Amino acid sequence: MRLRSLLFVPGDRPERMEKALTLGADALILDLEDSVAPANKAAARAAIADFLTLSQRERVDSGDSPSGVRATGHPHPSAASRLPPSPDGRGRPFLFVRINPLDSGHLDDDLYVLAGNPDGLVLPKAEGAESVWRLAGRAAVPILPIATETPAAVFRLGGYGPVAEHLAGLTWGAEDLPAAIGATASRDETGAYLPPYQIARALTLFGAAAAGVNPIETVYPAIKDLDGLRRIAEAAARDGFTGMMAIHPAQVPVINAAFTPSAEAVAQARAIVAAFDANPGAGALQLDGKMIDAPHLKQARRILERANP
Asked: Is 149 annotated to bind ligand?
């Protein structure tokens, strides 16, 4: 499954959902949490369930059925088999729902949206594998935990391996954590993350790699600063993140471009793979005057998977 861009859509704004299908995002996150006031949550659940039911019916009618399809590159086929084909080239984006936190008192009501057959759930304030187990026991869909929104969560980022088969990836957030630890900001005056949040970001990356799932970069809140977004997204792709969440439609093409390997990178990756294919017993080779070995081959294959989902 390729998830370069995941666009949030408020659950109480049904008129935005249909339009969001056409914006080029690899996934939509229909939100029941922060963007929906308590008084509007019931209406948002109903709107999301109706939208999901209609959208999934149209997907099946068009032949783009989620049934039994293994998502390319996903290390856990039991989760991947519940996902539809990649939206690249045809079809519609994956449809996720961000529910409210497990202990918010909204869980039973939020799971009403499962009647619409979402492609996955986004779990806010996840605190390690235990949170995933709790939700997976009630929802047989892939789960994307937001895994750094409480202090306890940060210390459990290395423990998602046992629940990897239930995961659509692992992501993080820097908006709730400052309040939880008594901080006044997560970024400095240049927009760069302060040290505590740099740590949370890095541990999310390592935690996802340890679990064998895709790491997803958090949102960039300055919606008019597309140059800043481009820098952040390109840095995330460089560091190993495979996608990024978005909060505005204008951010989607910038994010997609950052997480799509360039033609030059694809050509180089193909050359590395071809060199090892031609020398199957070699542990290290020279290519264009440089030494390449097993880590280069692994990275090359990863680039080709991302370029050809």
From this structure: yes
Cα 173 from Cα 29, distance rounded (Å): 15
Low-confidence stretches of the chain (pLDDT beneath 70): 1, 59-91, 309
Strands (DSSP E) found in 23-149 = 27-31, 94-98, 120-123, 143-145
pLDDT tens-digit map of 90-148: 468 999 999 999 999 999 999 999 999 999 999 999 999 999 999 999 999 999 999 99
Domain 5-62+86-260 indexed as CATH 3.40.50.720: no
C-alpha distances out from residue 101 to 20, 73, 131, 183, Å: 25, 29, 10, 22
* Spatial contact of 305 and 73, defined as CB atoms under 8 Å apart: yes
The answer to whether 176 is a known ligand-binding residue is: yes
> What is the CA angle 148-152-153, rounded to 5?
30
The token pair at 188 is: 């400095």
Q: Cα separation of 161 and 254, whole Å?
A: 31
Closest CA to 135 of 92, 80, 79: 79
Q: Are 129 and 163 in contact (CB under 8 A)?
A: yes
| Domain edges within the chain | 5-62+86-260, 262-308
Give the contacts of 67 (CB within 8 A, at least 6 positions apart): none
Output the six-digit token pair for 160.
């998602």
